[in-house]
Every structure is written in structure tokens, then in C-alpha cells.
Amino acid sequence: WEGNMKKYKLTEGTLFGKGNVKLFKNIAGELNPAAPDFWSDQDYVNQNDKVESGGFYSQLNTPASGVTSVRTLYVEDWKSATDKTTVLRKVGVNASGKMIVDNNVLTDATFYDTATYNQEVLRKLLNFLGFDKLPPTGTAVKNITLTTANVSAPIKVLGATVHSTPASVSYSANLDNDGRVTATRDDYVLFGSTEGGLHLVDAADQSAGGGKEKFVIIPREMLKDTQNSDALIKGATKQDIGSPNFGIDAPWLVTADYKYDFNAKRVNIDTSDNKGVFAYGGLRLGGEAFYGLNLSNSDSPSMMFSITPTTAGFSRMGQIWEKPTKARIKTSNAANDKGLDVLVFGGGYDTCYENESFQVGITDNLLGTCSNKSSTKGNAVYIINAKTGALIWSASNSGSPTTTVPSMTNSIVAGVTTLDRDNDGYMDHIYFADLGGQIFRADFTNAGFLKPVKSGKPSPETSFTNTRVTRVLQSAYTGSDTRFNYRFYERPNVSFYRNPTTNSLFALVNALSGDRSSPLPKLREEDKADR
């Protein structure tokens, strides 16, 4: 899917393009071809509604004017041949027309993951950078000397954005005399697209230099599979009908730490004590992986961690669909322990749920390999170190989790709700729902706090521990009717109230159900509708 990202302005509930022209022609949502967006390089007269007219696409760099004028591209590789920690490597072309990686000319020893970065993939990366006329495949990429003759036209590769909602990334801003943030800001937009790139784009209007790509990151998961990496070639097609590439398809979480200088009337990113700007997310329908990126320096992004089902402790992980939830825990009762930033997320999606009649345990020959499964991918919840990706705690019915919960057999696609019940800054509980109509609560005790005991005097906990996992809601249907169980794709909403009659406190847990994978199913009767 070819795509674009465009910027419009919202005024009193109405979207406008340049020249204060309304984006929509009517209430049916028909786009107005006379409304150029605020990133557009020009007014495409009566063509502004076309996908590749204006927007971020119009600002992309190509080598048509010179071999070095290419996009700022980073790819994921191993740290060394023996250390398979993931890092980002910057790929480009030097003035001599040679492909360079981290400013060094490409050699056979440049990439450590040689299985991924073979000759075919290296050529696809050159195609992505705009070089579409390359020598025959018998010529090694390291021996190719690129010129503008290797460019037939200004080649721009950009896929559609399907489920990857844009995230705001703010680096600095001016303050007014009252210490309030003004309109003078250094803002960017982060989003993924179906060709497999994660883009950081200047959020300013085109007149102020906005709409330009700061950099694009392509994870290794997009390059290991031949069909996925084909999306880096302009105009590439796929034999499988109805099976598009989804690339980086999930919404990402962006967190930032700021320091305010009221004397200088300025707010900037705070990078002290391991602080900064960080982005976290998965691939949704694009694949099974989860990443942590350090974006504190927009000129030099770095990979903090990369997690896949082959990573130790994450064998139950599926496709990560939702943003992780950031929280803070206390791991020791040392006086200088200020707590640890963590991420909490569900195990993800199993594509067996693409079948409307699928549920764990259902036997049906039409389900193929999904028939009579005892558990699915994604039937887990994880808590990880937000800076290193190290696993702190997990729960599942299989895969050697920290806590084994026999009833956790279904995919957990929805986000996880975290609670700090005593307002001390540390997470005490989490709530999560699955695709089999179940909701769970997990309770924790932070280090330094009294751990619950049945009798005697409680003692302070010396580490972050899980005290229990409780099933709050059980599946609605059993036996042959299990296929009708509700599917929860959204995180539970938890609120607290006091009963005016008994003066007792209770938690109200709300969850929305609905078969998002098959929104128009014919499976259920009216009395078993999943909504």
C-alpha cells in the first residue's frame, strides 16, 4: 500500500488545509481536492486529495540531484558476531558513490548479521534510498559505484499508515513570563508505515521547514523475510492476494523527561540520571517483536533493546498490538533506591483469532492448525526494565513464566491497566483482559513495604514481588459454546467508589468487548452477540 502523512489544522472541530480551506467537502467525509496540507511543497491544483500529492511524501529526499542527498536511514544489526545485542547502524552513500555504514565504506565484514544483510537485502536498501537502476545481481554491492545514472526518477518509497497512530515527540519550547509553554516549540511526529519504516518527521509547517524526515529506522524483522523486504522497492507487488505487508503497524508509546529553566524562559530535554526521550512499540500485524529506542538525540537515535519470541523468557510472545504501559516499581529497600521505570504489556495476538469461530479448545477441521489448541501465542503478561528490556516478571500458563496461571490460555492483545493504590509513586496492581472473555488482576508488593502475611508480624519486603494473580471475570461460555466467548481488545478501565450505605470501598472494572478481527461475523445469534 502506497501511503503518505499529511498535516492539517483543527479549529473548533473542523479540519483546515492551507489558505483556511476546509479538508472535507461534505459530512460524508469526501476529501476536498482544493485543500493543500501544511506539509505540502505546493498546491496540487484540484489534486490535493491524492495520496502522493503533498504531505510528508513530497518532502522526502532522493538522490536525483546527487548521490549523497539520500534519506537518513538506520537499520538494526548485532553489536558483534558474538554479542547479539541489537544496535542501529546508519546506512548511506558517500561522495565517491560507495555504500557506507556508520560512515565506513561497506565491506563483507561490515554487518554482523550476515544472514540478514545479504546481497539481495543490500540492493533493496539502495532501492529504498532511491537508486532503482543497479548493475546485474552478479555485481557485489560493495563493488558498485553509484552515480545519478543509477536513478531513473526521484524515487520515493513510503507505505500507508494503517494502525500506527502518530505520536508527538517534543524536544524543547520557549516559556512566557508566567512560565507557560508558548507556540515556539521543537516538535516532531513519530509513526510507522507498511513498507517497514519508523519515521521521525519535523512537525512544523512546510513554510517553517517542517514535513521533512529527520530519520527512518528499519528493524531487522522487516529485512529477514523476503516478502517483507520487497516493500522497500518502489512499485513492488506480492503474489498473495489479500495479504498486504503491514510493516511497523502498531501505535508506539513516547515518554520524555524535561527540565525547566525559568530564568532563560526555556524548557529542554533532561538527559541526567538516565533520563531522556524514549519510544516503545511493536509491529502489530507486521510481525512478532517489541522495541525500545532512545531518541534523546534526534541526530543520533539508538536501540536500547529488541525483543522477539526467541528472546529468553518471551517464548509466548505474539504480535504486540497496543502501546505498553509505563510504571515505576521499587526493587530493593536500600535507602538510595529511587525506584525503577518499567513497561507492562500483554503477550500480543495470535493470528488464529482471524477465524471468527476460533477459541482455545475448539475442534473444527476448517480451522486447520488452529483446531483444538490448548493455548495461543500471546497468552502472557510481561514487566520489563524500560531502559534495558530485561524481564522482571511474567505470568502465563506455559513458557516457564515467573508466575504460572493455568487459566491464562488466551491471547492478551489489549493494553494493561496499572494502579498505584496508595499514591506512593509505585505500581501495586495491574488489570488485563484476554480474547477468551477473561479479566485478571495481579497484585504486587514493592521492596521496603510490608508484605502480607496470614498471621504474625509482617516484615518489609526485600524485592519487588507478585503476591497473587486473581481471575476477576471468567469466560461467559463453556463446552461447545466456547467459540462464543467475548473478545477484549481494549484495556480494562478501573475506578473506585465508596458504597454510601456500607461505607465500604469497591473497584468498578469496565471492559468493552467486540470481535475486532471479524467485525461483521455471521457466527453468533442475537443472544450471543459480542458487543
Tell me about this structure.
- The protein has helices spanning 55-58, 119-128, 221-224, 226-230, and strands at residues 9-11, 14-16, 73-78, 86-93, 99-101, 104-105, 167-175, 181-192, 198-202, 213-218, 253-256, 258-261, 266-269, 277-282, 290-294, 302-307, 325-329, 340-346, 380-385, 391-396, 403-404, 417-419, 429-433, 439-445, 465-473, 493-498, 505-510.
- Helix content is 4%, strand content 28%.
- The strands form six sheets. The protein has a ten-stranded mixed β-sheet.
- The chain has 531 residues and is mainly β.
Structural class: mainly beta
Low-confidence stretches: none
| Helical fraction | under 10%
Rg from alpha-carbon coordinates: 25 Å
The count of strands amounts to: 27
Number of helices: 4
Apparent shape: globular
Strand content: 25-35%
Mean pLDDT across the residues is: 95
Q: Roughly how many Å apart are the termini?
A: 30 Å
Q: Could you give a short account of the major beta sheet?
A: 10 strands, mixed
Strand order in the largest sheet: 6-5-4-3-10-9-8-7-13-12
